[in-house]
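Okay, can you check this protein?
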Amino acid sequence: MRLPDLWTGLAIVALGLFAILQAQGFPEPAGAASPRLFPRIIGAAFVICGLAVASRDFTRGRAALIPPGETWMRHPKQIARVAFVPFAIIAYGLLAPIAGSLAVSLVLVFISALLWNERPLGAILSALIVCIAVTLFFTRVMRVPLPAGPLDLF
């Protein structure tokens, strides 16, 4: 699916404004470049680029507020695959501190594999291998403290 440039550009602008506003809360030490500087620069670049992208539809004379329907939108499984990505991100953010990173990621990867027509046994095996490998990499190699949940296995 290709969204009109107007909507894509406005989404980029919104992301840039969000970065700029979030940087306002960062500390500002006296006499030095503050942690606010880089997010502000990146946010401003996003706003400028987003406005440039949004203006492309107007310069071509085809500003459309509603994107045209695509053939993939007629298949429920395709819509479920697309909708699962933001759902999985939100679910992980809400559930990982409670149930643990490994448990939540196992369930999400399993569901994702099923959505992509993997057989249940293959989905379980791939979820176990991928999630354990990623958890070990982040906790042991990168030393990122992932939420352990009630079972502190790693």
User: Anything to note?
Assistant: The chain has a mean pLDDT of 86. The two ends are 41 Å apart (CA to CA). Residues 71-141 form one domain. Helices lie at 5-23, 37-59, 76-99, 101-115, 120-141.
